[in-house]
């Protein structure tokens, strides 16, 4: 028989500590992996998900906030979105990251989405919350952060309904590159990067905490060129910028084609 004092200690250890641990530990993201045949199927799967999430968000809150990425994501989204059924007027579009180049430069992410979505869908230019390419890096990041804050007023962190993310061959996502100081930002929603290892060097990016407060993050990719990094991130769990995307509480979705998933 345990003495009363020891019983109290045991009770404290088991119940109080456990309750505290549950309270403090961040809820784990719900992770979904979807492997489809080819690039075309990746775009289809992605756009079906965007359609579903937009309609759910609009029914629940009257607005859908989505963050876009550059690179191959533009192709998937611009190819598939014109075919979906949604209330376009309720959309607000942001950029997970943007390259600091003019809107006419082929490297501009906004240029790609404006050409692919304004016209082919009922979306209008004023529904895009853009990074001002005429400002220098720090000022552009501060200006973009203010624009995002105006959409999520009085919030500690933005709560995007959906962020569409890509993964570079070095495991970067948005403009968060391996080993870069921007990865450790814990207060700002947005930071500037003036030494991006991938050109162009000047960029503006959402930070990891801003990304991880969104309701859903989706990585979509296709092709054998992604296979090694997919294995390092999803198979080996290596600590890379992509692996740190854990929306909490939230959903993390990976949509891959068979070639990108080949080494898993
Ligand atoms: O530079 C960038 O690269 C990543 C990955 O691009 P991908 O073409 O390999 O898919 C992209 O997600 C990011 O937005 C972009 O600025």
Write a structural description.
The longest helix has 23 residues, at 39-61. The chain has a six-stranded parallel beta sheet. The protein is 34% helix and 17% strand. The N and C termini lie far apart (53 Å). The protein has a single domain (39-250), classed as 3-Layer(aba) Sandwich (Rossmann fold). It contains seven helices and nine strands. It is of the alpha/beta class. Bound molecules: ligand LXAUTJHC. Ligand LXAUTJHC is lined by residues 69-73, 96-97, 166, 168, 173-175, 198.
Q: How are the elements arranged and paired?
A:
Elements: H1 4-24, E1 30-36, H2 39-61, E2 64-68, H3 72-80, E3 91-95, E4 97-99, H4 109-117, H5 137-151, E5 162-165, E6 190-193, E7 203-206, H6 208-212, E8 216-221, H7 227-235, E9 251-257
Parallel strand pairs: 1-9, 2-3, 2-5, 5-8, 8-9
Antiparallel strand pairs: 4-7, 6-7
Helix pairs in contact: 2-3, 3-4
The ligand O=C1O[C@H](COP(=O)(O)O)[C@@H](O)[C@H](O)[C@H]1O is lined by residues 69-73, 96-97, 166, 168, 173-175, 198.
Provide key terms for this protein.
Rossmann fold, globular, 7 helices, 264 residues, alpha/beta, 3-stranded antiparallel β-sheet
């Amino acid at each position: 028989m345990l003495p009363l004092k020891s019983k109290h200690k045991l009770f404290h250890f088991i119940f109080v500590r456990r309750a505290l641990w549950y309270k403090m530990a961040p809820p784990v993201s719900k992770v979904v992996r979807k492997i489809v045949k080819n690039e075309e199927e990746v775009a289809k799967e992605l756009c079906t998900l965007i359609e579903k999430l937009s309609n759910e968000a609009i029914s629940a809150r009257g607005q859908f906030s989505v963050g876009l990425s550059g690179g191959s994501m533009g192709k998937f989204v611009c190819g598939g979105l014109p075919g979906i059924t949604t209330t376009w007027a309720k959309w607000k579009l942001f950029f997970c990251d943007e390259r600091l180049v003019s809107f006419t430069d082929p490297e501009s992410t906004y240029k790609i989405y404006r050409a692919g979505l304004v016209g082919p869908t009922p979306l209008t230019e004023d529904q895009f919350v853009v990074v001002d390419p005429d400002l220098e890096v720090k000022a552009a990041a501060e200006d973009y952060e203010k624009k995002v804050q105006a959409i999520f007023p009085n919030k500690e962190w933005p709560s995007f309904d959906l962020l569409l993310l890509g993964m570079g061959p070095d495991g970067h996502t948005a403009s968060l590159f391996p080993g870069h100081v921007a990865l450790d930002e814990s207060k700002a929603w947005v930071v500037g990067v003036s030494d991006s290892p991938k050109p162009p060097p000047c960029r503006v990016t959402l930070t990891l905490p801003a990304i991880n407060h969104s309701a859903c993050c989706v990585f979509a990719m296709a092709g054998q060129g992604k296979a090694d990094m997919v294995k390092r991130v999803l198979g080996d769990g290596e600590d890379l910028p992509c692996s740190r995307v854990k929306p909490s509480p939230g959903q993390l979705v990976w949509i891959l084609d068979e070639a990108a998933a080949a080494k898993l």
